[in-house]
Automatic annotation (TrEMBL):
It comes from Streptomyces enissocaesilis. It comes from the Bacteria. InterPro entries: Aminoglycoside_PTrfase (IPR002575), Kinase-like_dom_sf (IPR011009). This is Aminoglycoside phosphotransferase domain-containing protein. Gene3D superfamilies: 3.90.1200.10. Residues 160-230 form the Aminoglycoside phosphotransferase domain.
Length: 274
């Protein structure tokens, strides 16, 4: 899933746009290419004109779809959170288009710490320090209290999807907070931690980030237990609703081929919650 586009022509199109974006931003690429989810992004380590270590990330979309939450997410997150929580700073952006595609390139602060896992699904048990958990909880509390008009989860989707995938009545979201929106161990570094990849942040049910981290970590019970201990919201009714919604999202994703190995654990947790 984190792989180049299946069409070689799309790979070459992305590489050309990446090289052009680096030139526009004055960046020198110094690292190997890293492809994102289904080849939608292309990134690499780079240096900016001030010789700072950076991470150059290129997002691509058909021109008619180059707008909205995902397209603007990292830029809008930088305006709200840079320097206030532990996330990579955004140094600069550029946008271009050609052959019916639009491109947004972002030059971020390079974070040398490794992530907790290479995949969103946690498969082996990391052992973060107590300070790591406290830092994560503090930053997510700051995020949750930050006003935004962006929306990460919609009640209308919940009304349709929960009965379809869980065969239970759709829960009503009564308490909304701002969420990172894609919190899993591939978006958390192992020491500080830094929170990476902000393109999906927005309003979500209270406890959504904790529920997402938990759902992706169900194959490692010890780590899942630590999540429960750290985020008391998971023991509340809003937290139960958030878990049901996240489980539904991941079951829908699995129906399209993403992380099917999680399905038994997701269904077991849903049975407990329902």
């Amino acid at each position: 899933m984190y792989s180049p586009p299946t069409d070689p022509a799309d790979q070459q199109r992305m590489r050309r746009a990446f090289a052009q974006s680096a030139e526009t931003l004055g960046a020198t690429v110094t690292g190997a290419e890293v492809w994102g989810w289904h080849g939608r992004t292309l990134s690499a380590r780079a240096q900016d004109p001030d010789q700072r270590a950076c991470w150059l990330r290129l997002l691509s979309a058909p021109e008619e779809k180059a707008a909205g939450k995902i397209w603007e997410g990292n830029r809008e997150a930088a305006a709200l959170f840079d320097g206030r929580i532990r996330k990579p700073l955004l140094y600069g952006t550029t946008q271009s288009s050609s052959d019916g595609y639009a491109y947004r390139a972002e030059l971020h602060q390079y974070i040398a710490e490794p992530v907790l896992s290479a995949s969103p699904v946690l498969r082996t048990g990391p052992q973060p320090s107590a300070g790591w958990w406290e830092s994560l909880r503090t930053d997510l509390e700051y995020v949750s209290g930050t006003p935004t008009d962006r929306v990460a989860v919609r009640q209308e989707w919940v009304d349709r999807a929960v009965p379809r995938f869980l065969q239970i009545p759709d829960p009503q979201i009564t308490y909304w907070t701002t969420a990172h929106g894609d919190l899993h161990t591939a978006n958390l570094t192992s020491t500080t931690p830094y929170l990476l990849d902000w393109e999906g942040f927005g309003l979500a049910p209270a406890g959504y980030d904790a529920a997402m981290l938990l759902a992706y970590s169900l194959l490692v019970p010890e780590f899942a237990h630590d999540i429960h201990d750290t985020f008391s919201v998971l023991k509340t009714e809003p937290g139960r609703v958030a878990q049901i919604i996240v489980i539904t999202e991941l079951l829908q994703s699995a129906s399209r081929g993403d992380h099917p190995e999680l399905v038994p654990a997701l269904c077991a947790l849903a049975a407990e919650l329902a």
